[in-house]
Each structure stands twice: as structure tokens, then as C-alpha cells.
């Protein structure tokens, strides 16, 4: 079932071309992909071949070799799976703003999946303005489409939770896998456009390409991690998910970021395993994750300091001249040159693996605020490092996670220097949660 609320049509052009074009953008998978299934429906209705295209942008802002490697592995999974289903797939090199209009002249329609951040939305609008055919955007990376969950930017999880909970019965339904009636694996109408290659995107690495690969990319790997989580880890999730040494998390955030697994698929499978961790995990997957998309969708300044709530900017402004015991530059922080060995290990883990446990990332962001001369600079540094080094950076969850460190979706706490009434975290708090020294020693041994 594809709920009509997931589907948005742009323009009213009649379908006159030779094929259906699915411009894959944010959902790099073939399972539980509403946009793909909708495109197959249209292909079958019109008796036209379906072609799937992904535009691989070499200079995507803040993307590193680690990001491209993860994405490329996901695209290879897509290629294999679509081939098995008789659907043609091409990875084209360049910006979709240049490529999609060039290949749309003979398309009946363009189907795409929804993107939320500014660049994705700009791409979509420019394509819509440039093409001569109907464009349909299908939401498939949210359980509840963002405009259905709430019509405005929400103050907190407390205000958002009852709204999205009321909508869940309408959207927590499996998606039927369809089969194409007109196969298209040998149909390649875009031969004049350069196909992307793996080598092309490894010529100028932003990070050291010898870094260990903590997570392999692709929907097959994502399914493996979800299955492993459900086989027993979820039972420990509620009690230990804030302990980085417990290995009680799902490790799915990067796969969600690249659209290599569906949050709907995750939710339905988690709900089939009732237990102590189920509700706690669904709170993170549904309420917290979709709240972050609400923030990015409705707040045009989601990636700027002035996009924070007024109360957070007011309290930080009141304390902007407070003395800092330690002060570090972007270069100091990026190169792990602080007095705090634990923080240095966190930054090193991000650089080497593209992953940092969520509880540690909160501490990591709070310390950047504490150690930077002014809060505006701290915000820019935290966002830059998160985007550059985290596999799930440059994402609504990432933007919201950094904003949370500065008070977004939180409440005022006890007033203190530098932080004002923003929630404070310190090393003693980490030690109460888990054996910090052991985690630090292992991290430094692995990645130094």
C-alpha cells in the first residue's frame, strides 16, 4: 500500500514519452522503497520500460572518501537487485540539475524520492522547472510524511510525540513488492552521458583512504545489522544503549542517512519482537528521528546558529564573555589536540571510522561549546566536524543533534558559566554511565 499522502505531483503534463524515469536521490535501496514501487506501478499502467538513474556528484559539499565509499557500495547493491528484477539502472556522473533535464525529453514522467535538506530541495525545484514532463515525488524515508506529522516546527519531543503517534496506524503498513511487465535491463538511452566509476571518486580523497571501514555500505549490510540487533541486542537496548561499551545499539544510522534501509521496514520488524527494548528503540526511530526532519523541513535556518530557539541564543549571549578555562581552534579540535584525552579519542573515532556512539556525540558537542570563544563559532565548528567526519552527517539527524547540544528541543537547566541554562555534560557523567578509561584505551590503540 502506498498512502496518497506520500505522493506529491508537480505540473499536469500528459505522459507522452517512451519510458518512466526514477531519479533515485535519497533512497538508495530496492526494498521497502515506495518511490520505486510507485514507478513500477506507472510503468506497468503505461506499458513503458522503467529506467532508474542515480546522479553521483563528485563535489558534494563536505563529503569525504569514506562517505563516497559507503554510498558506492550501496549503489552496487541496488544495481544487482534491480538487475534481478529486470529493471535498468545507470549511475551517471554529474549534478542532477544538469543531467536529469538532459535525459527527460523522452520520459513519460519522472518519479523521485523526497529529500529534506536545502541542496536536495534546490535540486528538485530546478529539475521541476526545467523538464517537459510530469514530476512525482514520493516520500519513502519517513514513516509519517513530515507535513502529515505536523504542519509546523515543533518545540520538543513532548509536543511532537502525540501528533505523530495519532498518525502511526495509517502508515505502519507493509509495502508490496511489484514486478515490472516491461523489462529494461538492456535499455540504455543515456549512453552519451558519462557513467560514474568507483575510481573517479577516489582520486582526491578528503580523508585518509587507508582508514579502517567500520561499516560496509549497502542494503544487504543494513539488513544484516538489523537482524543481528533483533536477535538479542534489542533486549539490552533500554538498559544499556547509552553505554558505548555495551554494543547495544543498532548501528543503522548511517544506513538510514543514505537511504539504504527503510525506517518503516525497521519499525515493523522491531514491533514483531516485543520486549523491554522495543518501545525505547521506537521512540528513537520514530519520535526523535522524525522530529529532526520536522526541524529541517520547517526551519530555513536549520544549519545556522540563528536557527536556534530564542531562549538558547539569549542565555548563551548573556554568557558569551565568560572566561573559558580552555580555548581551542577548529584546527586544534580537528586534530585531537585538547587536554581531554576522552574527547580526543571521540574525535579520532569519528575521523577513522565515520562513527561515534550517540551518547558520546552529545558530550563531544557540549565540549566544543565549552571550549570555543563564542557560541556562534562553536556551532559552526561542531556542525563542520560532524558533517565532514560522520557517516550520518549532512543529515536532519546530524543538524538536529548539533542543535540539541545548544539547547534545541531541550529545556532550561541550572545556570552556570559559559552554558547559561543550556544542559551541561562533564566527564564525571560519562564515568557514571560506563567504564570510560577502558573505552578510551581501546579506541586509541585501534586508531592512533
UniProtKB/TrEMBL annotation:
One Pfam family named in its UniProt record: DNA_photolyase
Protein name: Deoxyribodipyrimidine photo-lyase
Catalytic activity line of the entry: cyclobutadipyrimidine (in DNA) = 2 pyrimidine residues (in DNA)
EC number: 4.1.99.3
Residue ranges of domain Photolyase/cryptochrome alpha/beta in the record: 18-146
Keywords: Chromophore, DNA damage, DNA repair, DNA-binding, FAD, Flavoprotein, Lyase
Family named by the database record: Belongs to the DNA photolyase class-2 family.
GO molecular function: deoxyribodipyrimidine photo-lyase activity; DNA binding
Cofactor field: FAD; coenzyme F420-(gamma-Glu)n
GO BP terms, alphabetized: photoreactive repair
Amino acid at each position: 500500500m502506498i498512502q496518497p499522502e506520500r505522493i506529491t505531483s508537480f505540473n499536469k503534463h500528459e505522459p507522452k514519452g517512451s519510458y518512466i524515469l526514477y531519479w533515485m536521490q535519497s533512497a538508495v535501496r530496492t526494498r521497502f522503497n515506495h518511490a520505486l514501487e510507485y514507478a513500477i506501478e506507472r510503468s506497468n499502467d503505461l506499458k513503458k520500460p522503467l529506467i532508474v538513474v542515480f546522479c553521483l556528484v563528485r563535489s558534494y559539499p563536505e563529503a569525504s572518501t569514506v562517505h563516497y565509499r559507503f554510498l558506492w557500495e550501496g549503489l552496487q547493491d541496488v544495481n544487482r537487485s534491480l538487475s534481478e528484477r529486470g529493471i535498468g539502472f545507470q549511475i551517471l556522473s554529474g549534478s542532477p540539475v544538469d543531467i536529469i533535464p538532459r535525459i527527460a525529453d523522452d520520459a513519460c514522467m519522472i518519479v523521485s524520492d523526497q529529500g529534506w535538506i536545502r541542496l536536495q530541495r534546490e535540486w528538485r525545484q530546478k529539475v521541476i522547472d526545467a523538464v517537459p514532463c510530469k514530476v512525482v515525488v514520493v516520500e519513502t524515508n519517513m514513516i509519517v510524511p513530515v507535513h502529515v506529522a505536523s504542519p509546523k516546527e515543533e518545540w520538543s519531543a513532548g509536543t511532537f510525540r502525540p501528533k505523530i503517534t495519532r498518525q502511526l496506524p495509517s502508515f505502519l503498513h507493509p509495502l508490496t513488492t511489484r514486478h515490472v511487465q516491461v523489462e529494461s535491463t538492456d535499455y540504455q538511452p543515456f549512453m552519451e552521458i558519462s557513467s560514474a566509476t568507483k575510481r573517479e571518486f577516489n582520486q582526491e580523497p578528503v580523508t585518509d583512504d587507508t582508514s579502517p571501514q567500520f561499516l560496509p555500505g549497502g542494503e544487504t549490510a543494513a539488513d544484516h545489522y538489523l537482524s543481528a540487533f533483533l536477535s538479542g541486542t534489542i533486549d539490552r537496548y533500554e538498559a544499556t544503549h547509552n553505554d558505548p561499551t555495551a554494543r547495544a545499539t543498532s548501528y543503522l544510522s548511517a544506513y538510514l542517512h543514505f537511504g539504504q534501509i527503510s525506517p518503516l521496514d525497521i519499525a515493523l520488524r522491531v514491533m514483531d519482537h516485543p520486549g523491554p527494548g522495543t518501545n525505547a528503540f521506537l521512540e528513537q526511530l520514530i519520535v526523535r528521528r522524525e522530529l529532526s526532519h520536522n526541524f529541517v523541513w520547517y526551519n530555513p535556518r536549520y544549519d545556522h546558529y540563528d536557527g536556534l530557539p530564542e531562549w538558547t541564543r539569549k542565555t548563551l549571549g548573556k554568557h558569551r564573555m565568560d572566561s573559558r578555562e580552555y580555548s581551542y581552534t577548529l584546527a586544534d579540535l580537528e586534530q585531537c589536540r585538547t587536554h581531554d584525552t576522552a574527547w580526543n579519542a571521540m574525535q579520532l573515532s569519528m575521523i577513522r571510522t565515520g562513527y561515534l556512539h550517540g551518547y558520546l556525540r552529545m558530550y563531544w558537542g557540549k565540549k566544543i561549546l565549552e571550549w570555543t570563544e563564542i557560541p556562534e563559532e562553536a556551532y559552526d565548528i561542531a556542525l563542520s566536524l560532524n558533517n565532514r567526519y560522520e557517516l550520518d552527517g549532512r543529515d536532519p539527524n546530524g543538524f538536529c543533534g548539533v542543535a540539541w547540544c545548544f539547547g534545541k528541543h531541550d529545556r532550561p537547566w541550572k545556570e552556570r558559566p559559559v552554558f547559561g541554562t543550556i544542559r551541561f555534560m562533564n566527564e564525571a557523567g560519562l564515568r557514571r554511565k560506563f567504564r570510560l578509561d577502558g573505552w578510551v584505551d581501546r579506541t586509541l590503540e585501534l586508531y592512533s
